[in-house]
Design a protein that fits this description.
heterodimer, A: about 325 residues, alpha/beta, two-stranded antiparallel ribbon, 10 helices, about 35% helix, B: about 450 residues, oxidoreductase activity, acting on paired donors, with incorporation or reduction of molecular oxygen (chain A)
């Protein structure tokens, strides 16, 4: 039986072109019924025309789209986990359940000096801190139970405060008390994504196996991809993990549908993350040529069947870790 | 400006404040909708744009308020992160300015300057920043550095923060190359290249709300807008004269700083009906539980055993009883308690009646005609340059104002009928700042 694949596209990072430019690209991706777009970001100095804040660009695009998933990169090294969690929860609200988070770290001397709060640190330490940031975000997103808002006029209470919880995270780099200032987001927790290299087994893998629901995997052959995917799933010990192979569009454009179909069959992958270097030129080809070819093979959906990013990826909406199960008492 | 505008009449600048998490926001009313869904923000923003307002304003929360060691549950709780909401609103509005309150204590200039520049680019020049600072350790528990800032250093940090942010905004001329900003001061030590060239406004509009002498001086030197609580004619004129009088020493002219008091409006078909509605709203704002809580904040002790419809507590306040965290600091509780007792005795008020009495009277109560006339008078007599309207209902709280008062202000020739400029600076009549890119600051 044919397994449908998941398809996403990397738009690079956002030079300060008009808002309409970025919205147009996201709308085009939505037209192709892709699962999601990613938008890179960092606090490094920008080359060329500059780089807009990725959460900002996708929040803007959210108001002009209705189905496509929106996954910005947000780095954890120089940012406040509390703000990051609030911004991503808010992106989930303004998009009505389409936000994700591509976690990254900031390794450069330039970014460290620009923020001026700490020196650069080794990769392993930065990724361990990123995992702590992912833990804090997950706790804060869970810190309001889904039914915490009660608006009970009789007792004058807006919320049931027994359904709000402190995150109480205490780690080597930060501590966060909570609860979140933002109520629980539509998806419960926006899915966390991590980019991994199939070859390396670095500190990113730890974060991925514990927190990621989407892995964007760079692999040089179907065999390495298959091996990496098997290992990831076994490390994670759960099946709510979608492994998408990163494929450059530029070098493979004409052969792309064929290539994706073969990899999909051979690597046992869940789908692909198509990396564009010039989205303005490459995205139309993906949507108008590659997507129809995959549909013709029965490998890709004709339209979005769900509304949220979790719906597209077949990921269940998680319960809050703090919710007390009382059904047993009924 | 249209040809029918009477010469020399000051224009009224209006802004819409999204209802916040104080008891003044009524959630029990059947018309009250979500405080968090995007549709609510979109409704109020589009209403403000329909009314040709200058901007839309969001407050900020960084820690849920607590009383008696537990999360305060009587008022609206929970709100989104401001800048993310405003970037989305930029896509569904065309002219409206978009103002976010963001704390300078729990952010760093490089990152925040970039986030505001992004909003200014994406909105085509409509960004504004209401700068606040806080020094409380309670809020600090959610952040890396904790409550590190001394109360006395709040304006030092704010001033240095703005200086660094402006240097970053200046540092990359459109079509040019970014210069390196070097800054070394008590609060920040950075070497940075901006990630964005000049945004349409170059500097987002800066709003300041502090009322102390230091706050007023900071505003006179740095801000484009002062958000004040001095809403009456007399207090407004005194404040206006004081703050505008400080501008000259910084080489600024009175029209370069707009003074906008917070204002609430209640309308009726007659004066009597408006007064009745105003009283009804104040009663909605003070539930029996809220009335007791209001007294507890001053008494510093648990008063839940007292009947809200009965007399004031017969016990004295506890000197250091801090029951509440996340509210404004309260000095002199004994004095306040004594004054409240005297007021309650004089007017024979119960706990709840007293709390209602203490709740600020709405700024403008009357028919659309009398409200338009009163607002115009405030502006023409220099008690204000306009108003930040704070509705009591989410999200429809300004519908009636825009439908009924805005046309009358337009007839008076003191409110635009169409936007004439593109940017928030245009709406406010503020010039574009002259960027001063330089290698070091």
């Amino acid at each position: 039986m044919t397994r449908e694949l998941h398809l996403s596209v990397a738009l690079g990072s956002a030079g300060p072109r008009s808002a309409a430019h970025w919205t147009g690209l996201v709308q085009l991706a939505e037209l192709g019924a892709l699962d999601f777009v990613t938008l890179d970001d960092s606090l490094d100095p920008a080359d060329g025309e500059g780089r807009l804040d990725a959460v900002a660009v996708l929040a803007h695009a959210a108001a002009r789209t209705s189905r496509i998933g929106l996954i910005p990169t947000v780095t954890t090294t120089h940012t406040e986990p509390f703000h990051t969690s609030s911004a991503l929860a808010t992106l989930d609200f303004v998009s009505e359940g389409r936000a994700g988070w591509l976690v990254d770290v900031s390794t450069t001397e330039e970014a460290a000096r620009a923020v001026g709060r700490r020196d650069p640190a080794p990769d392993a330490e930065l990724w361990a801190e990123a995992a702590d940031a992912a833990e804090v975000a997950a706790r804060l997103w869970d810190s309001w139970e889904d039914d915490a808002e009660i608006r009970d006029a009789a007792t004058g209470r807006f919320i049931d405060r027994d359904k709000l919880h402190y995150a109480d995270f205490d780690g080597p780099h930060f501590s966060v008390r909570g609860p979140s200032i933002v109520p629980r987001p539509p998806q419960g927790r926006p899915p966390v994504a991590v980019a991994l290299d199939a070859q390396g087994r670095d500190a990113r893998w730890e974060l991925a196996s514990q927190y990621a629901e989407i892995v964007l995997l760079a692999a040089d052959s179907a065999a390495t991809a298959r091996e990496a995917r098997t290992e990831l799933l076994s490390r994670a010990g759960r099946d709510d993990l979608r492994v998408l192979i990163s494929v450059g569009v530029t070098e493979t454009r004409d052969a792309l549908p064929e290539l994706l179909a073969d990899w999909h069959a051979d690597a046992g992958t869940d789908g692909f993350h198509l990396v564009t270097t010039s989205p303005t030129e490459e995205l139309p080809a993906v949507i108008h040529d590659v997507v129809p070819a995959l549909r013709a093979r029965g490998l890709f959906r004709a339209t979005h069947t769900g509304h949220t990013l979790r719906d597209h990826l077949g990921l269940a909406r998680p319960d809050s870790r703090y919710a007390v199960r009382t059904e047993a008492a009924l | 400006m249209s040809a029918s505008t009477p010469a020399g009449r000051k224009q009224v600048h209006l802004a819409a404040h999204f209802p916040g998490v104080n008891s003044t926001t009524v959630w029990r009313d059947p018309g009250s909708r979500s405080q968090i869904d995007f549709s609510s923000f979109q409704h109020l923003a589009r209403t403000a744009e329909r009314g040709r307002f200058d901007f839309f304003f969001l407050a900020e929360g960084l820690r849920l308020r607590e009383r008696k060691g537990r999360i305060h549950d009587l008022d609206v709780v929970g709100r989104p992160e401001s800048l993310t909401v405003l970037n989305a609103l930029a896509a569904v509005t065309e002219h409206l300015g978009l103002a976010a309150t963001v704390n300078a204590t729990f952010n760093e200039p490089y990152e925040l300057a970039r986030r505001f520049a992004s909003l200014d680019h994406l909105s085509g020049g409509r960004a504004a920043w209401n700068i606040v600072t806080s020094s409380d350790a309670f809020t600090g528990e959610n952040f890396r550095r904790g409550g590190y800032l001394d109360r006395a250093d709040r304006y030092t940090r704010a001033a240095e923060f703005v200086e660094v942010a402006r240097a970053l905004w200046d540092s990359w001329p459109s079509g040019g190359t970014p210069l390196t900003v070097r800054h070394s001061g008590p609060q920040f030590d950075i070497t940075a290249r901006a990630t964005l060239p000049h945004s349409p406004q170059v500097h987002p509009v800066l709003i300041q709300a502090g009322d102390s002498d230091e706050g007023r001086e900071f505003a006179a030197r740095t801000a484009d807008i002062v958000f004040t609580r001095h809403g009456t004619l007399e207090a407004g004129r005194a404040f206006h004269a004081d703050v505008k009088g400080r501008l000259a020493r910084y080489g600024r002219t009175p029209d370069q700083l707009k003074i906008l008091p917070a204002a609430t409006v209640v309308l009726g078909d007659s004066e009597a009906e408006a007064q009745e509605r105003a009283a009804h709203i104040r009663r909605q704002q003070v539930s029996p539980q809220t009335a007791v809580a209001t007294l507890e904040n001053v008494w510093g002790r648990d008063l839940t055993g007292y009947d809200p419809d009965g007399p004031l507590p017969d016990v004295e306040p506890v000197p250091d009883g801090e029951l509440a965290q996340g509210w404004a600091h309260m000095a002199d509780r004994f004095g306040i308690a004594a004054r409240w007792r005297a007021l309650a005795e004089e007017k024979h008020l119960s706990i709840r009646e007293l709390a209602i009495e203490l709740t600020a009277r709405q700024s403008f109560i009357g028919t659309p005609g009398s409200v338009a006339a009163a607002m115009d008078e405030h502006v023409q007599t220099d008690a204000a340059d306009g108003f930040i309207l704070v509705p009591h209902l989410t999200p429809g709280g300004l519908d009636e104002f825009v439908d009924r008062v805005v046309p009358l202000l337009q007839e008076r020739g003191v409110l635009r009928t169409e936007y004439e400029g593109r940017t928030l600076r245009d709406h406010l009549g503020l010039g574009r700042p002259a960027p001063r890119p330089e290698e070091a600051v």
